[in-house]
Amino acid sequence: MKKIGRIYGEAKIAVKERTGHKENTTEPPAIKRQTKNIEDAWVHLKDINRRMEKTAKAQRLTIEDSFLTAQSFKDYGNKLSSDGDFISLASAFTLIGNMQEKIEDLKMRFDDSLNTKVASPFQNFVKTQIKEAREEKVKYDRMRISYDAAYEKVKQMKLKGTARHEKQHEAEKELEAIETQFRAVGDEMVSTQEQVIGMHQFHSLYKLCDFIVLYRDFFQQGLEIVNAVFPAVEEYRQSADQFKEKFSQMMRAHASKQEKVKIFSMPLQDLCIKENRTIPFFLEKTIRHLLQESVLTTEGLFRVSGSQREVMEMKKSIEGGALPDFSTQVSDHNVSGLLKLYLRELPEPLVPFQMYDDVVRVCTMDIDDQPERVTEKVENIQKLFETLPAPNQAIIRLLLGLCSKITEHSNINLMNSRNLSVVLAPNILYSKEVNLTALSDANASIEFCISHFNMIYPNFEQNMFAGCGDPVREEKPVTTHARSQTISQPTSTVPPQKATSKSSFFSPQTPRLGATRQSVMVTLDPSFHDAIKNMGAPSTPTASPNLSSQQNTQPNKNISLPPTPQTSSPNLSSSQPIYSPGLSSSQSISPVEGASPLSDSGDTTSLPPESRVNVTKAFSWRNAKNFL
Fold first, then answer.
1. Residue 546: left (phi > 0), alpha (psi -120 to 50), or beta?
2. Is 99 in contact with 226 (CB distance < 8 Å)?
3. What percentage of the chain has pLDDT greater than the value 70?
4. Which long-range contacts (CB under 8 A, 24 or more apart) does 6-13 make?
């Protein structure tokens, strides 16, 4: 019963201490501090050992993968070396493989050293020294609780005074025996804790120094491995520079070769000089195909859009040096679309910007259907067209002739002169500044030229393609003085109301928003210009393209446009002067910025009459095409 009572008393005190109902007053503060230090070392050293073991396992897997990577480098180096064409590259791959193998081997030895000199000693210290100190603390706590229970028993007996003297004396003797044991266990525990804490200080410091030294040795040996192969780096860089220069030369040669076969978006004069013929060969072949009787009856020719993909494939084939085979199953609409695409991508329209006003004034002059006035109007158009460069003259002649042939079958193909002018005028006759009036005037001008083609070119049937293959050279500036050309004055004056409705509401000096065209200027003498100006023109004339007047030419040379995205062909350099048939070599002008040409989408048969109103709000050719 005494043993059971003692055990019960010890358990009661232990529970009270753990639940906070009784404070441990027997244990000195010094022992509490040492015990806390032992517990902290136990927790943190165990955590360090656990993480070092985890890192070592992961590092082992990484080293194995790195060995495989090194072997892959070496295998590829051996393969390149056997081919014999990549000596420097093969040597570099092999060198990297060998270097990585050495580095991974060094990593493996480093991990083994860390485990041997740091991780294992820490682990042994925790499992032996710290564990022993903690076990001594457990013994001490048990003895302390026994002492507290015996002391509490004696205390209660004295307070109650009901116990017999023998029992109280027995309890006091038991307390003295337990106190003696408690002091012995406490002294032993304190000694053990002091030894462990002291050993922890110098033992852990030694291991941490070993840790730093191992890292230093690892990086030094790794640097030695890298330094051993570093002299080869400069050699590889020199080889790479040589290969890069060869590659750059190859790419420049390739780009130059591609540039040499550029046809679309190349200035017409340059292309004709390059091919040494008046009309580019592919363009002549295209027009010849469209002039076939079976093609002329195709419904919606030039109005119906073909396959954009097939048209672009034909363009790519032409610029690659080959000519499309129209004898195969090629849609006639694709062929007409190809022709419109070429005209649309010309840097300068067939009718140059500087001649737009004069051509429109003549073609839209009100003649009241008087035969003599029609003849006079046709003669003036002939004289204007004769001032164009030879390639422009020849292509306009063939193009208008093709349109005239198409209109002969309009009852089948549903394409009369008005419908053709709507879809073709935006590609061959337009001004830098675009508005609905300008669009309407351009359509009317082309419609008149198509309707009166046989009068403008009376001998077209007899010599349709005459002179297309004649050599062409860079033309000198042409003036009407040299050619003795004059335009007869009209015999009657057009009423101001009609003149205003037919006039152009823009000036060559006004920049067209979004234009990306290059200027080709044709020189006309003052009398020639004045004659045209008086044909139905308003009282305030637009600027003359005559280069003899400094006032008129200055705006053209220094035209300023707002910055817009560049959508022109890569062949057009903004810094390269452009030859202009109307200028001398010292008066060449730089490209004028502007908008990209029209797309083929949205062709219609005709322009609604109600849309031909006097509206001067500027908009792009692309918007104009969408409007139609």
1. beta
2. yes
3. 69
4. 6/146, 6/149, 6/150, 9/149, 9/150, 9/152, 9/153, 10/142, 10/145, 10/146, 10/148, 10/149, 12/149, 13/145, 13/148, 13/149, 13/152
Residue 525 DSSP one-character state = -
Burial 499-523 (b: 16+ CB within 10 A, else e): bebbbbbbebebbbbbbbbbbbbbb
Q: What is the pLDDT of residues 163-206, one digit of tens each?
A: 677 777 888 888 888 888 888 988 888 899 899 999 998 999 99
pLDDT by residue (tens digit) across 115-142?
A: 999 999 999 999 999 999 999 888 888 8
Query: What are the CA-CA distances from residue 612 to residues 23, 502, 616 (Å)?
Result: 106, 11, 11
Q: Which two tokens stand for residue 592?
A: 């004028």
CB-count exposure of residue 21 (10 Å: 0-12, 13-18, 19+)? exposed
| Residue 323: strand, helix, or coil | coil
DSSP string, 557-616: HT---------S-TT--TTS-B--TTS-GGG-BPPPP------STT--S---GGG-----
Q: What is the pLDDT of residues 433-483, one digit of tens each?
A: 777 888 899 999 999 999 999 999 998 887 888 878 778 666 544 443 333
Helices (H), 84-130: 87-114, 120-125
Confidence of residue 25 (pLDDT cuts 50, 70, 90): low
Q: Coil, strand or helix: which one is 623?
A: helix
Instruction: Compute the C-alpha angle 230/232/237, nearest 5°.
Output: 105
Q: How many helical (H) and strand (E) elements, i.e. helices and strands, does the chain have?
A: 24, 0
Residues 6+ apart with CB under 8 A from 56: 111, 114, 115, 119
* pLDDT on residue 256: 64
Question: pTM for this structure?
Answer: 0.42
Rg for the chain (alpha carbons), in Å? 51
CB 387 within 8 A of CB 352: no
Q: For residues 358 and 529, is the Cβ–Cβ distance under 8 A?
A: yes
Q: How far apart are the two ends of the chain, measured CA to CA in Å?
A: 118
Mean pLDDT of the chain, nearest integer: 75
Q: Which residues fall within 8 angstroms of residue 610, CB to CB, at 6 or more apart?
A: none
Phi, psi of 119 (to 5 degrees): -65, -50
Write the CA distances from 9 to 6, 24, 351, integer angstroms.
Answer: 5, 15, 120
CA angle 440, 444, 449 (to 5 degrees): 150
Cross-strand bridge partners of residue 589: 578
Handedness of CA 209, 211, 212, 217 (dihedral sign): positive
